[in-house]
Amino acid sequence: MARDSFHDAMYHSAIASRLPHVFVIEDTKLSFHSFLPHMALPNQQTVDYPSFKLVLVGDGGTGKTTFVKRHLTGEFEKKYEPTIGVEVHPLDFHTNCGKIRFYCWDTAGQEKFGGLRDGYYIHGQCAIIMFDVTARLTYKNVPTWHRDLCRVCENIPIVLCGNKVDVKNRQVKAKMVTFHRKKNFQYYEISAKSNYNFEKPFLYLARKLSGDLSLHFVESPALAPPEVHIDLAAQLYFEADIAAAAAQPLPDDEDDAFD
């Protein structure tokens, strides 16, 4: 039987130094009770496998809620926390190292009325920043979201996602997306409505949190049927475009990418 790395003492010791508030000691082994027991939502299920608070941020209308709702189990089990004004979606994934859960915090649209309160970010253990490739302003605002996130959550793994790559009138080309390279975090292009690259942000975060680059998903989560279709040729084009952009030198200033 393969060793369950998520319940291995070495794994827990490595990650405990970064996330000390998540763990309790039992019989000399570190184990997870929940992502943060004292902040559990009403009626929220406590699980006996690793779980993490994932903060999902970005401008309103970028597709954050559509993205997280693709995960059918998480959508069915979501809970609303009125005191903070968020919906929390428990997203489970099965890996070769055991089961893992992301408690994905979705703003429920409140970012449209101003900045998010610190209570949304507090104890965040990983994050996704999303922008809309059909709306330049949403990408220009990425540094602001990153700044607000890092002000409260220091040194957590972050993924930048450019959503709506299925839409024809793309305004933010791959070569324009350089912020993640300057800040040294991951970027993926996704299409929430087609499920394109849905799992990649979560896999990246799971690997960073576990410190195991060989970690992989052993089964796909149940996703809502795609509303649009991206053919293989388009997918290959996206990937080639990303590779070409990564090979280009960084501009001196972030705004240079839009020239």
UniProtKB/TrEMBL annotation:
**Pfam name, any one:** Ras
Could you tell me which InterPro entries the record lists for this protein? P-loop_NTPase, Ran_GTPase, Small_GTP-bd, Small_GTPase
Q: Does the keyword Oxidoreductase apply?
A: no
Q: Name one GO biological process term.
A: ribosomal subunit export from nucleus
Query: Where is it chiefly localized?
Result: nucleus
Identify the SUPFAM superfamilies for this entry. P-loop containing nucleoside triphosphate hydrolases (SSF52540)
Alphabetical UniProt keywords: GTP-binding, Nucleotide-binding, Nucleus, Protein transport, Transport
Where does this protein reside within or beyond the cell? Nucleus
Q: State the source organism's domain of life.
A: Eukaryota
Query: In Gene Ontology terms, what is one molecular function of this protein?
Result: GTPase activity
Q: Name one GO cellular component term.
A: cytoplasm
CDD domains per the record? Ran
Q: Does the keyword GTP-binding apply?
A: yes
Q: Which family does it belong to?
A: Belongs to the small GTPase superfamily. Ran family.
Q: How does it assemble?
A: Found in a nuclear export complex with RanGTP, exportin and pre-miRNA.
Q: What does this protein do?
A: GTP-binding protein involved in nucleocytoplasmic transport. Required for the import of protein into the nucleus and also for RNA export. Involved in chromatin condensation and control of cell cycle.
Q: What is this protein called?
A: GTP-binding nuclear protein
